[in-house]
Amino acid sequence: MTELKKSDFYFDLPEELIAQDPLEDRSGSRLLVLNKETGETQNHIFKEIINYLEPGDCLVLNNTKVIPARLLGCKKDTGAGVEVLLLKRQDKDIWETLVKPGKKARPGARLSFGGGLLEAEVLETVEEGNRLIRFFYDGIFEEILDQLGEMPLPPYITHKLQDKNRYQTVYAKREGSAAAPTAGLHFTNELLRQIEEKGVKTAYVTLHVGLGTFRPVKAEHILDHHMHSEYYEVSGQSAQMINDTKKQGKRVICVGTTSCRTVESAADENGIVKPGCDNTEIFIYPGYRFKVLDALITNFHLPESTLVMLVSALAGRENVLKAYERAIEEKYRFFSFGDAMFIV
Length: 344
Fold this sequence. Notes:
This protein has a 9-stranded mixed sheet with strand order 2-1-17-16-14-3-12-13-15. The longest helix is centred in the last third of the chain and has 13 residues, at 317-329. Helix 5 (306-315) packs across helix 6 (317-329). The chain has helices at residues 141-148, 189-197, 236-247, 257-266, 306-315, 317-329, and strands spanning 30-34, 41-45, 58-62, 64-66, 70-75, 81-89, 94-100, 110-113, 118-125, 131-137, 174-177, 201-207, 230-234, 252-255, 276-280, 295-299, 340-343. The protein is an alpha/beta fold. The chain is built from 6 helices and 17 strands. The two termini are 24 Å apart.
């Protein structure tokens, strides 16, 4: 296979198709169903996905919960404004963060948030210019963060989010993400109940989504791109449910690229999912052979992103780009608060 370039995954997306706000009804978004073998597409409403699910299928959902990881504060000595994005907890009060502007966050710098309710010291600069920061506070960190922090919306969303819960799935449980697993935003509790009543199993896994989700691919040759490490967990119960589904010849349907990356990372070479926790840097692009996943529910992704490369690995680059072309013609809404695609 010829070496793939970043430009092989380019498409022209009109800016007005980038969804700025979530829909009133989560499951009322549109759904483009793509047949990965034929490339044929069909238009639906998301809640009609139930008609494509069969008894014995297993939906894999990522139950990570987004923390309000964006903190706006200032330097203690000068009062100059700083923005801190929490990426990964290293220790109880030490976090790897992204600080803007970086020049104000040299080691030793002291920062203040919420009029001193939360203070911090920059310890060191690490990979990619990120900063390790130690926080100081009285009380419970999570409660203070809930009070002061904002949802870390992707850079392409410019509207302020009115309700923090709309950037969480209804089944979000395990705190730790810097971004939402957005394919799951379309599910309501009612739809999940109907799916269960139909005899479809639901297996929950956890992958804490990191900033790598938003990082553009800079390398022209995609194999030169380095994926950021993300922490995942698979329980014994979920592993067994997924493995039993495969054994029975039924489909494992991942909700979102994060669930997909979790099960593919947790599987051995025979496709048996092993319970446990680890960090993954798995990069899925065309040529990858899926060990576990049979079908994928996902949103519409950025041009030249690793996520477009992942869906192209499943459905073929040409099929995906043609489907995206149709979605643009039909004015589907793109990215985090946008519409969905079901690759079957």
